[in-house]
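In response to reviewer comment 3 from the previous cycle, which asked for concrete evidence that the modeling workflow produces usable outputs, we include below a single protein chain processed end to end. The sequence was submitted unchanged, and the resulting structure tokens are shown without manual editing.
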Amino acid sequence: MKALASARRHRFAPVVLMLFALLAVGGIYAVAAPQAAVADSASQDDVTEGEKLFQANCASCHGPSAEGRTDVAPSLIGVGAASVHFQVSTGRMPMAANAPQAPEKGVQFSTEQTAQLAAYVASLAPGPAIPDGEQVDPALGDAANGMLVFRTNCAMCHNAVGAGGALSEGKYAPSLFNSTPTEIYEAMLTGPQSMPVFNDENITPEAKRDVIAYLMEQRADDSSPGGANLGAIGPVSEGMWVWIIGMGALIGASVWIGAKSS
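The workflow returned the following structure tokens.
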């Protein structure tokens, strides 16, 4: 008992106890926390082919084991299949040149190759999986609730209807007018570029589907009942219209009246 009491009074005892506590908490979280698994449809052949594609096209920046390089590209361990599918299927990756963010461009890989790359990265560690058709089906969503969720969490960057907008340091929130439901869901789930991650605790899968329903509804022909939307970019285009057309017309009318009275 004396030895035990002495050990507890040792100056390093609090440090050792803290380390044990941290290990215990980390272990419990790793077991209990919900994690998305690799998609069931991904076979070992897909993983093998995906690794070959990765080594030939991605390893020069992300490292041969996808561990990343701090001065070039981030680690891909744990990002999941959804992140890879979003970046590659939109053409953002492979990145054409170093820039504040990767722009959307022509797709470099086929649908099958994209799925294989996603399967390989997903095999490295658990991460968000590619959503299925039901999760992204706008017909199953509530557009009214989606509008509330979008305007609370997304409109400050993407504009109230998803038209996009400028951010700081050369970055920008892209327009969502041409984004597919799967891309929108994956972006919320993984947080690409400057976008924050909206996991299932922040925005539930049902609310994500509602957001998709709202954005898809904006593309309808009658989505602008007030008239021309002027690009749907808000007060900038509206202000230009007022100053150039409105004020221009008033000035022209004033000049015409003055000329008539003289």
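The chain is about 50% helix and 0% strand. We consider this sufficient to address the reviewer's concern, and the full set will be provided in the supplementary archive.
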